[in-house]
Amino acid sequence: MRLDVVTIFPEYLEPLNVSLVGKARARGVLDVHVHDLRQWTYDRHNTVDDTPYGGGPGMVMKTEPWGDALDASLADGYEAGAHSPVLVVPTPSGRPFTQELAVELSAEPWLLFTPARYEGIDRRVIDEYATRMRVVEVSIGDYVLAGGEAAVLVITEAVARLLPGVLGNAESHRDDSFAPGAMANLLEGPVYTKPPEWRGRSIPDVLLSGHHGKIARWRRDQAFARTALNRPDLIERCEAGAFDKKDREI
Ligand SMILES: NC(=S)c1ccno1
Question: How far apart are CA 149 and CA 156, in angstroms?
């Protein structure tokens, strides 16, 4: 997968050099290109924004730098043999970013991120590129950030870990919260590791039983209970009959 990010804060994307995403890049699973939007400004102040038409507070990011930057990023990708990019626009007014969307994006060969600052990007930029590629406007939550770069980090991490060969154990994300399948609308339950006793706190006996069926059932019960506690809005989406009242007790 190729990732391009156009931003006025390239240094904000430094975390894409470390940990899981950094290792995926080092192994060639992920090919990340960060572009400084100000490279496509031609005035002495490297201006990327201007006042909004219609008035109102704040500033709007200008069309010309974005158009030149996106054209250059696309040309670079096509030259490198990439094709069918998806324009990913982090915005509070986008569709919710979910595990399902992360899975969907992880199947794409090329993601082109446009994290905005100020009040956002002149709408004509998105409309222009929507004539050439799929555009996904996405929100990582119902809150407003100073810019979309943090959302790029979140989305990239969630997508990269789903790419083949990135997680050590390919089974790891099968039991993730929200993972497609049995966990689709469930939160992960509690996890434990050695030592067996810590400050007078021991491990649930079932996890030491070696009985895989009972362990699986306990884990699912814990997931249901945790979901009922923290995300009751999800609980009714679980398959009917798979949830007994007793499971609500943690
Ligand atoms: N909630 C999101 S994705 C966002 C982007 C910029 N501000 O908030």
Answer: 11
Written as six digits, the tokens of 188 are: 């992960």
Yes or no: say if 203 and 41 are a contact pair by the CB < 8 Å rule. no
Is the CB of residue 115 below 6 angstroms from any atom belonging to ligand 1? no
User: Is 211 within 8 Å of 218 (Cβ atoms)?
Assistant: no
Token pair belonging to 214: 């009972």
Tell me whether residue 90 is one of the annotated catalytic residues: no
The tokens of 13 are what?
């994307």
- E strand segments, 49-102: 49-50, 60-61, 86-96
Atom 3 in ligand 1: residue holding the nearest Cα: 139
Is 4 catalytic? The answer is no
204, two tokens: 């649930």
ipTM: 0.94
| pLDDT tens-place string over residues 181-200 | 777 889 999 999 999 999 99
Residue 147 near residue 90, CB atoms below 8 Å: no
